[in-house]
Amino acid sequence: MRRFAAARRHQDRRQPPGFLKRFDYSGCGNSEGDFKKQTVGKLKKDVLSVLDDVCVGPQILVGSSIGGWLMLLAALARPERIAALVGVAVAADFFVSAFNELTVEEKKEIEENGEWSLPSKYAKDGFYSVPYETIKEAENHCLLASPIPISCPVRLIHGMQDEDVLWHVSLQLADRVNSTDVDVILRKQGEHYMNGKDDMKLLVYTIDDLIDKL
Questions:
Q1: Which residues are CB-neighbours of 170 under 8 A, at least 6 positions away?
Q2: C-alpha dihedral over 103, 108, 114, 115, to 10 degrees?
Q3: Which ranges does the record mark as transmembrane (predicted)?
Q4: Catalytic residue among 46, 93, 162, 164
């Protein structure tokens, strides 16, 4: 994955259309920073920086999980730069929705401790440490409660065995976006990361189909 910092350093060397741009968010992968200090708003700025400083022309954005949420936020901020969207297990409103499912007592404990140990089988320690401030900041970026003014083609791929983000979220998202060119593709045996061989083939096919269409 391309380091976000490297993308910023080479922002004056924009690649022509047709090139794939990949990057790690601040505090993720090879990018510098502490992920616990990131917020949805800060990560959104990462996407917009790459879109503005590295990419040329309209783009097909591909986002998975929280990256899918950020993909939507970027499309709302730069509609003229977006040709289409491809989301995999899009975790729109994730922190807020998951927090709201907790009991009053659990919410109060998290607020007092200032941190939430969010269980996940994908985390090294069995949970992710999410600062309470991150949850509250995420409320400023929620999308699913109202129509989403995105009009470009949208493709949503979701595994029905996903235990982190239920596939119903993709159906809700499809209903919320204004675009009439929306497909939801469900994989009965697919899990959250959708990284099986057939899952990856489906993702590549979906992107290729959009490129031919556009």
A1: 87, 89, 90, 156, 157, 158, 184, 186
A2: -20
A3: none
A4: 162
| Options 26, 141, 192, 199, the catalytic residue | 192
pLDDT in tens, 70-118: 999 999 999 999 999 999 999 999 999 999 999 999 999 999 999 999 8
**Catalytic position from the list 26, 31, 65, 170:** 65
Give CATH superfamily name and number for 58-93+142-214. Answer: Alpha/Beta hydrolase fold, catalytic domain (3.40.50.1820)
pLDDT 10s digits, 6-27: 333 333 445 545 556 776 666 5
Q: What is the pLDDT of residues 138-193, one digit of tens each?
A: 999 999 999 999 999 999 999 999 999 999 999 999 999 999 999 999 999 999 98
Q: Is 168 a catalytic residue?
A: no
2 SS3 class: coil
164 catalytically annotated: no
Average pLDDT along the chain: 87
Alpha-helical regions (H) of 54-167:
66-77, 94-100, 104-113, 132-138
Residue extents of the structural domains in the chain: 1-57, 58-93+142-214, 95-140
